Amino acid sequence: MASIDRVNAASLRTLTILGCGALGSAILFGLLSSFTQDASTNSSNRVVDQEKHTGLLNGATHAALEDDEDVQKPTRFIACVRTTGSAERLRKELVKFQQSPPVMILKGENSRAVQAADIILLGCQPQDLVSCVGEPGVRKALRGKLLISILAGVTIPQIQEVLDPTSPPKSTAKVNGAMAPTGLSHPTSIIRAMPNTASFVRSSMTVITSCSNATPSAIRLVEWLFTSIGTVSQITAAQFDACTALCGSTPAFFALFIESLLDGAVALGLKRSEAQIMAAETMKGAAMLMLAGEQPAAVKEKVATPGGSTIQGLLELERKALRGTVAGALVRCTAAASLLGSRQT
Questions:
Q1: Spatial CA neighbour of 77 closest among 51, 52, 104
Q2: pTM of the entire structure?
Q3: Burial bucket for residue 143 (CB in 10 Å: 0-12, 13-18, 19+)
Q4: Which pLDDT tens digit goes with each residue over 109-133?
């Protein structure tokens, strides 16, 4: 098997997803959609987005990578699940993607799936890290391959320890307030990513960070994978828990806010289904203004005219401490994310 230094983008053709829960499935379906959508139309639309985003997100990567001939798309996907029910759910969903690359579904065969793969997307629950990749057959099969982890709260050094528990660390680094090993001798190249469930509609915001032995071609391939389903930004390992909360968890925050608006709309006599479209499109429009360069305060002030109705609603939100509550929720979420990696079984 080729060493990690010899692995290049052209050889990375088969992608195995270990754990096809809500996020793993969203990523799989988003990637499959990227093969069936009109590439020229999609790419041109998102190049415009890239121009709008310039300067707003340092290091962000957008769909321009989709046309990069040096990055080879996977030609086959393997989806690993633990239960028959999950396998049946995937089979039903995959009917929509008959024009996409083939997908093999395996139940409880992690070792076989990893052996057949060039790229492995680790999507199990954080507490299941050891049971998922710690078995000898899986550890051996991962050697020389690219492992992309989307496990919240699980650091690259923690994954390295599981993959090579007998190898002493070459150095240590402070991770989540504690000294953790880095640079272990296991030749698996590990890149950590945090997308969100909007991957399903190819609108994820994904952050990535990599280990020291990740080659530029491996990083570029990971950027391509997640650019195919949204926007990518490279961050440091120290920023990862905060970005897990900000990018991975806030779709639930936004959904709760929309749900609250719908309750109010229904109380005012609107149909919930119609109000949902109105509220979601309005939120989308406000987001597009900010991605185009508008500051949140400027967007707010343009709507809240003197003596108008908007300022009355804003004052009510301020009276109920919305700003502090939301900020506090993000801080609390970040703290919880940092502890997920300590619950491994």
A1: 104
A2: 0.81
A3: middle
A4: 999 999 999 999 999 999 999 999 9
